[in-house]
Amino acid sequence: MPITFKAGDKIRSSEITPEDVFHRRREFLKSAGYSVGAAALGLSPWSPVNAAVPELGAIGQWPGSTTEKQTPWEEATTYNNFYELGTDKGDPAKNASLLVTDPWSVEIAGECAKPGNYTLEDILKPHANEERVYRLRCVEAWSMVIPWVGFPLADLLKRFEPNGNAKYVQFQTIIDKDRLPGQRYPVLQWPYVEGLRMDEAMHPLTMVAVGMYGKLLPNQSGAPLRLVVPWKYGFKSIKSIVRISFVEEQPDTSWNLSAPREYGFYSNVNPQVSHPRWSQAKERRLDGESKGLAALFSEKRDTELFNGYADEVAGLYTDMDLKTNF
Ligand code: MTE
User: Fold this and answer.
1) Is residue 217 within 8 Å of residue 25, measured between CB atoms?
2) Which residue among 4, 138, 139, 237 is best mutated to probe the pocket of ligand 1, counting the most ligand atoms within 8 A of its Cβ?
């Protein structure tokens, strides 16, 4: 994950997810009991990206949300890591239309009573959405504050009745080498995979996100569903998930396979454990105040242990040396 600070490029409307795809997703979400606000399409005051993304209505509010200043939508959706769509921070938004999210299904596999192929509707329908404003700290020492929309991963996983051998959960992103430009190059082993220990996956903070800022997730942010694990570095928050597998052994993860000395399995945000090539003690908040080169010189803030979620999650790691289990 080389650090490249580039201003978020402006996007032509021809480069974003086709509107008919969003319409079909909106229709599905309606039929699945998700209410979709009418004010969404074509009413964007400022961005073609915004114009294409429908709003989600009737979203509950999670009481634990941070009240810190939010990263503006435009910055959060044009400064991304999604290597399947390119390695430059602006590539995922530019290439977003190459990710086809309809139809979508998720394979549930491994140590559980109800494995199988589930349509996106099957996956999402029973869950009520709520908005949770989380900090997300990237290993590259920047952070964002984003109002995600979704539900606890635990509620989804329980439906498949994992058995006693399910010690970990592995997640996998779509593989589509014909369409996704990044997958034509071996920057990572494809498909992108991530994993959590079972208790991390079942922790109430761990979230399946289907939207952000009251709208459906745009493709560059991991449509149609992604993880958000707020106390871990951003790369654990895998996008565009097509497979969830309950496994007994600690699963492979993409960044650990790529550079095991630099990226461990746990990847808990920890200011005391440096990345071998840079410190993790401070971070730059992307808050819309400074973009591009200006961001390089903006003031940094201290990074907090577990990204500020220590009260909630430190108990998961009481007997572990966080320096060796980085
Ligand atoms: N998921 C997939 N499938 N592919 C990726 O390249 N990048 C990760 C993570 N999820 C990535 C991914 C990294 S490095 C980060 S920091 C976050 O997504 C970025 O999420 P954001 O673009 O929504 O900020």
Assistant:
1) no
2) 237
How does residue 299 score in pLDDT terms, banded at 50, 70 and 90? confident
Digit-coded pLDDT (tens) for 149-167: 999 999 999 999 999 999 9
Buried b (16+ CB within 10 A) or exposed e, 284-314: bbbbeeebeeebeeeeeeebbbbbbbeeebe
Segment among 27-31, 69-73, 125-129, 190-194 with least mean pLDDT: 27-31
Q: Which two three-digit tokens encode residue 14?
A: 């021809």
Listed in sequence order, the residues at least 6 apart from 169 whose beta carbon sits closer than 8 Å to its beta carbon are 157, 195, 196, 198, 201, 244, 245, 246, 247, 251
Nearest CA residue ID for atom 14, ligand 1: 235
pLDDT at 123 over 60: yes
- Class of 2-317 in CATH: alpha beta
Q: Is 276 helix (H, G, I), strand (E, B) or coil?
A: coil
Alpha-carbon Rg for the chain in angstroms: 19
Please tell me the predicted confidence (pLDDT) of residue 57: 64
Q: Is 192 in the pocket of ligand 1 (CB under 6 A)?
A: yes
316 Rama class: left (phi>0) / alpha (psi -120 to 50) / beta: alpha
DSSP summary character for residue 289: S
